[in-house]
What we know:
Helices cover 74% and strands 0% of the residues. It has 20 helices and no strands. By secondary structure, the protein is mainly alpha-helical.
Amino acid sequence: MMRIKLSIALVFLVVSTVSSQDNYANKIFNLEAIASLTFASEQQKIQLAEALNKREQSLENASDEEKLAVNKSYYSTFKSIFDEDQKNKVYHAQVNPTYIAEKTSTKYNELVTSYSFPTEHKKVLKSEIEKFEYSKVFYKRKYFLDDEARLAKWDELSLTFNEWRNKQKNAIRQSSKFWQDKVVPYGGFEKRDQDDFIAYHFYINLQENSEAYKERIMVLASSSSLKKAANALASLEAQRVVKSSGALAKLDSTSRNYAGKKLAEHLMQMLEGQLKKYQPLFLEKNTSFYKSIAVEFGKNRQAGMIKKAQKEEMFSRSKKGGLDNETTEKLWSLIQQREEDLELLKESGKQNSGTAGLFENSSQKTKSQIKKAFAKSLAELISRKEFGVIFQSDFKQVIEEKTTEQMTALKEAHKLTEGQTAEIGKMVSTYYFNQAITEAYYSFDKPLKKQKLSVVRYHFEKKFKSLMDMYGFTVNPSSSTNNRTFEW
């Protein structure tokens, strides 16, 4: 084998177009280095030795321009001798790890100092920067005699790297701003809450499809920090809505507080749904919609409280009327059914308003039919006496009005003592009570109601005439008496 001179000077031989800023040995001019890196065959070693010897001879007394041509010629031979894997080993061996570490550290520190990236993501940042710096040096070695190819590759690397870096910056900026604008105003958060919230939205904003990113988003979505943030968003938004609602202000405080609580729960469910879908934790400022939900909760609560109070009162009344709990429950069910039927009729009337309603062929009960059915079922469940005891307070006002009217007329016709006024007034009041109860209890059957009312009137007039005779007052015959007035 031809003896080859391997001078250290050849290691640093470069042309004017190539810089050696990392002072790392250019191993393509070193047979031993290449052989150790590429496991060159004997035939390849012979070919390389011949090429290196030819290069050394050609460089003697050559001008700079001629040296460039000699090196290009040798490099062309070098590339033809070895396969791609062998050549890449040579290029990789020329990358100085210390130089890469320094360049990586500078870029990494600039990035993480300016932005608060998630701790676990910083390793990714450093790794990507290191790959970029390494690739730059690698392609510098690979194209060390081809400026055009080298610069084109560097431009490609730089473009890709800058796009990646800008994507990281935008994602963390958006996430940090989202935290400041949407969550910080609510207060009460710890550093861990902030870090998890920003990290969650950072990974979402990156829109990466790798399993590692997806897993990280899943872990953060189920964290206590994100649930705490969701609860704050829901609670504060509910408070804002309730405070600004005029309709809720008309309800009692218990119903308003209930509406706020239920709206917060509703909004929390919306936010939890977003976390389950790994979406940004965000509530649209849809005030009118949120108000409608809160008002419905509040009104239902107030109606429920009223309904509860009504039921309690009904049981109290029924107990006084001598009804057992089972009968009272049946009575309450009848009342609720009547209200539901009337409400259904009311809604049906709204839907059928206009010309179309004139031709509606429906099996819907009329208001009169609903009331008649209720009265009939009521009469089958309880007696007239029980009805009177339970519902007497509902007729109190009309009874008092009629009694006052009749007593005023009586006192104008006759000079009554205080005792006479009290005795006659009690009788008149009892009459109107019996009249009202009888009319309501038998309202399902007009002929029967008329008959029962006649009996009530007959007994009253008989007792009334007897009482007036006792006081020495004359009363006109009953034929001139109607439902509201008497001839005194």
